[in-house]
Structure formats: structure tokens, C-alpha cells
Amino acid sequence: MDTDTSTLIRGTLIRGIVQVTIPVTDLARSAAFYRDLLGLEYVREFGDGADVTGCALADFDAQYLVALRRRDTLRSGADADLRGEHPIIVEARSPEAAERIRDRATAMGVPSTAGTHADGTWIEFLDPDGIALRVVHSPTLSDSFFGVVFPAEGEPSFYDEPRLALP
């Protein structure tokens, strides 16, 4: 890999994520969940003229948006399912800030799980559709490659050489 390509991949031209978009079944319920849990502001709505089919919530200080789209209005329809995945991973300002988010979740009746892995210590919450929101609070990002195998049962295992052949 040449230096220019390596520099681009390492992200020197990208500051961060501006928006993530999640397919949901109940737009209002999901918008309230993300608003209340993360303290986001309801800032955008999208529609087809008859119905509101999507919305966005923002943290303008942290400069990101969480957009939600009704599953039944997406091209892939009900197949747009991220249950069991964690497409949103945010970083809390501190472990104490992450605990304040966990306190909000508890007050909302939302359980959490927590753990530590190669990228840091985290707390995770399931949204109303069963999609995981992960809050990392002690990041330990490594700039070297590692792969993870998630077996059907038991603990994950790791490997250090890529298996996917990129063109």
C-alpha cells in the first residue's frame, strides 16, 4: 500500500461520523428513546407528503445526528433489520458520563449490559427495535489489525491476520 492510500485509510481527511441512520418500526417511540437516553434534540422530519417517514435527532455540540427511518417505507421494507447489531457506537466524555446515561436508561426502564474488549470498556442498551446502542467510555483503540470470531456458543476468539482478500 502506498503512503497516500495509507494516509487516506487512516482517516486524516475525515473528522468523524456526521450521521447514522437506523430502520425502526415505530418512529415516535424510537425518537423518544434516543432523545431521552442520549439527551438529543429533535431537529428534522422527512416524509412523503402524507406521513412522516423519518426524523433526525442531534447533538450539535458533539456534531452528530441519529436519523431514524420507518422500516415499512424503505426500499428493503421489513427486511431492513438490525436487531442484535450495534450500528451506533458513541464515546462518552468520561466513565462518569456513561454512568449518567445508564442512570437515564434505568429511569426509563431500559436494562443495560457492559463489558470490555479490545476497543474499550462499554455499556450497551437495546432500543425499542432490539438494536444495540453502545456507549464506549474508556476507549483503548488499537491501530493494528485484529479479527473476531463469534461462535454460536462460548466466548469470542481473536486473530491477527486478515482473512478477507481485498482487491
3D structure, described in words:
- The protein has helices spanning 3-9, 27-38, 95-108; strands at residues 19-24, 41-47, 52-59, 64-70, 88-91, 112-117, 120-126, 132-139, 147-149, 157-159.
- By secondary structure, the chain is of the alpha+beta class.
- It has a 4-stranded mixed sheet with strand order 1-4-3-2, with helices on one face.
- The longest helix has 14 residues, at 95-108.
- The protein starts with a helix and ends in an 8-residue tail after the last strand.
- The model has no long low-confidence stretch (mean pLDDT 83).
Q: Which consecutive residue ranges, at least 5 long each, have pLDDT under 50?
A: none
Average pLDDT level: 83
Beta fraction: 35-45%
User: How many angstroms does the end-to-end distance come to?
Assistant: 12 Å
Number of helices: 3
**DSSP strand count:** 10
Helix/strand-derived category reads alpha+beta
The backbone outline, from C-alpha atoms, is globular
**Order of the strands making up the biggest sheet:** 1-4-3-2
Spell out the helices and strands N to C. Answer: HEHEEEEHEEEEE
Assign a percent range to the helix content: 10-25%
Q: In angstroms, what is the radius of gyration?
A: 18 Å
